[in-house]
Every structure is written in C-alpha cells, then in structure tokens.
Amino acid sequence: MLTGKTVVLGITGSIAAYKAAELASRLTQAGARVEVVMSESATRFVSPLTFRSLTDRPVVTSMWEASSEFSVEHVALAEAADIVVIAPATADIIARLAVGIADDMIGCTVLATKAPVILVPAMNVNMLHNPATQHNLAELKARGFTIVEPVCGRLASGRIGEGRLAETEKIIASIKQILSKGNDLAGKHIVVTAGGTQEPIDPVRHIGNRASGKMGYALAEAARDRGATVSLITAPTLLPKPAGIAVTPVRTTAEMKKAVARSVAQADALIMAAAVSDYQPRKATKAKIKKEHPSLNLELIRTPDILSQVKGNFLKIGFAAESENVIANARQKLVKKQLDLIVANDITDAGSGFGVDTNKVTIIDKQGNEEALPLLSKREVADRILDRVAKLI
Ligand code: C5P
To answer: What pTM does this model have?
Structure first.
C-alpha cells in the first residue's frame, strides 16, 4: 500500500528526532519514496546524512540552499506529497502551523499541500498540557490534521509523563489508514447532526442534555477527510467550527428537523448523531418565569422524531445511547425508524458516551448483523462507521 507513495517526512527539533530515522527506514523499506525535510534545530539532534542514507533521497534542510532539487521551487514537495507526516512535531511547529507561518520549508510545505497531514507531537509534558499547545492542536484537528497522540513514559527531562513520541508502529498504521481511505467518499454528500438540542422554557432557561457533539463532529470531519461534501447540522456545542464543512447551527428539535429536511435533498446519507430532546415544554413563556411560586409544573409534549419522519432516498444511520438492554433497544429502533445502520452504545460503560473522547459501540445493520468495536477514539469510531457507509452507498 505504501509502494510508490510519496511521504514527506518533516522532522523538527526534539530529542525524539532520532526515532524518525526508524520511521524513515521502515517507510522506505515498505516501498514509499520518503522526502525528508528537517528544521534547522532538528539537524542539531540528528545529521541529515542519516536520513539521506536511509531514504536514498536528498534531504531538505533550508529553503535557500541549493542542496536539493526541491529548494528552487518551494511548493514542489507540497504537490508531490501523497501524505505529509511531521514526526516529531514540537510545540513550536504546532503553534506555527496553527497560525499558518511559512518561513521554513516545513511550514511552506504544509501550507501549500492538499495532501493529508499527520502530526506526531513529542515534547515536555507541561508544554503539551499548556493551554496554548492544546488550543493549537484542537485548531489543527478541526482543520483536518490527524494527530497521533503522544504517549506516557520517561521523557528527556527524566520525568515520567505524557509527551513521548508515539511508537513507529502506530505512526505507520495511521499513515496506512489514511492512504487506504483515500477518497472513498468523493462525490458523496453526507449530512451529519451533532450535539444536544435545547428546548426553551422561557427566555433564559431550557431543557437540554449532556451531549458534547464530539461524536458528530468526528463523523463530519472523517467524512470530509474521505472526500465527501459534508453538511453538519449542530445543536450548541463548545467545539471549534470544523473547516471545509458547511455548518448549520440550530438550537431546538424543530429547527434541527427543518435544517435536516433542507439538507437531505441531495444527500447520499444522513447520520443522526445528535442527541435530540424527546420532549419540549408545551409553550415557552415570553417573560422570564419568576420564583415566587413554591412549586412549578412544566407540561412537556413530545418532539417530532426527525429520523422517523425524514423522507428521501438516502442511507439512514441512527444512534442509540442506552443505559440498559442496549442491543435489544437498538435493534427495535433500527426497525421502527427504518434505518440502514444503528450505532448502539452503553452510556454507563467507562470511556463511552457523553463528553469523553472515546466510545465503545456496536454497529447493527438492517440484516441484523452485529459488529462490536473495542474502545476507540471517537475519530476511529467515526471511520469504522464510514467504512460501512462507503460500502453501502
Ligand atoms: O432518542 P432515540 O433513542 O429514539 O434516538 C435514536 C436516534 O433517533 C438517534 O439517531 C437520534 O438522533 C434520532 N432521533 C431523532 N428525533 C428525535 C429523537 C431521536 O431523529 N426526536
């Protein structure tokens, strides 16, 4: 799968730079053409000659030296790349990429490329956890970069903590995964809903739920990265707006229903990851309810079921977040809502459900087949769901 692929490997100044030698070697052995670009500080840790010898290709260390065939045209590497991998990625390069600085060859290449970009951070634990770095990583993720997360272990400082470069094996798996997905959803239009709808009680209060929107956003971003045109209809969340995706913000179930009806006209699939409120107050008061009354009765009525009522010839994928009889309940919903797939998760499972970055789900199809997935990141769960969608479309 790596044969004939051009991997641009950006190496920045971390002690973990020596591990990039193994990565370069393994990728070359697997048949990839590995074009190494080193930052000035990376060359202080490892000699460019190491990479030149391993890859049998010139190594780019500066935009100005005529040391390689690429130095003349600073975007040539960006265009040649099937994938760009920055390993190790320091806090500095992560910050510079987040704002789009292009004053060296790595910055230029990333800014100019249309290829997918993987960042493999390695740094001191405090630098990693600093809100600036976390903000930059979140920003880059929202733009479609893949982050191969650093692991816990002994750091160069001698401290034990998170910040070690991920294992070579994991980096290669991520490269393969991205290259194999390619553009399998190119030309397809996918509508995704996310977040928890809010039903107003009065001008300041609402009935809501604990959905963070993370699963829906992960699906939207994964579908975008696989070439789909994506419409994301989102109830309020704290997540950054993903790039390259048409986002329609909504608040109530009624608003979501309208937005879905509008978006599905040309859709190939609707994925309802939103946690839709099942009830709404019969009437939201215009004025703020005062607390003079010792008690207050709120009459609730059912909201419309968006997924059951939406019409059209596209795949319908639902979610079933359950706390008991998970599979049986999910199966019932699959039939009742006439879905092609349902994704069941037990919200009482550790690492699953609201707010967290991981999820453990079972995908059930129309024929009743179950695929139980292990605990995975929401992004990986999204890709596993989209593997199924890509086959069904
Ligand atoms: O709430 P319930 O468990 O029935 O939700 C299952 C699926 O139906 C979810 O995909 C959810 O987004 C969708 N749903 C909907 N409209 C509702 C309630 C749920 O589309 N009113």
So the answer is: 0.76
